Amino acid sequence: MLCTFDDIRNKEIINIKSGRKIGYADDIEFDTCTAKICRLVIFGKAKLFGLLGREDDISICWSDIEIIGEDAILVTCDMPILTKKPGGLLKNLLK
Questions:
Q1: pLDDT tens, per residue, the chain with 95 residues
Q2: How many domains does the chain have?
Q3: Which of 32, 38, 81, 28 is nearest to 63 (CA)?
Q4: Are 85 and 56 in contact (CB under 8 A)?
Q5: Does the reported pTM lie above 0.85?
Q6: The domain containing residue 85 runs over which residues?
Q7: HEC states along the chain?
Q8: Dihedrals phi, psi of 73, to nearest 5 degrees
Q9: For residue 28, what is the domain's CATH number?
């Protein structure tokens, strides 16, 4: 099955272990040496329309993906990796 990134972005990511919806893939990380995909990245939710920054991003290792189906991506991960993001516009103005 061939998939484009646009196809992957439109599939909901669900954790099989907890049964919880994680979100939709916003970005990917790949290794430039091997040209292999390493992680799917889900951006954190914006706080106050992005003025106060956003929550931490969630990174899911490619090896944690069990199935990429028609409607969803099923993953098995104990705890997604959270990636810190810099503060929002308001936090930067107050510095």
A1: 788 888 999 999 999 998 889 999 999 999 999 989 999 999 888 888 767 777 888 999 999 999 999 999 999 987 655 555 555 555 555 55
A2: 1
A3: 38
A4: yes
A5: no
A6: 5-94
A7: CCCCHHHHHCCEEEECCCCCEEEECCEEEEECCCCEEEEEEECCCECCCCCCCECCEEEEEHHHEEEECCCEEEECCCCCEEECCCCCHHHHHHC
A8: -115, 120
A9: 2.30.30.240
Structure-token match 């969630």, residue found:
58
Burial class (CB in 10 A: 0-12, 13-18, 19+), 37: middle
| Residue found by looking up tokens 């992680």 in the block | 39
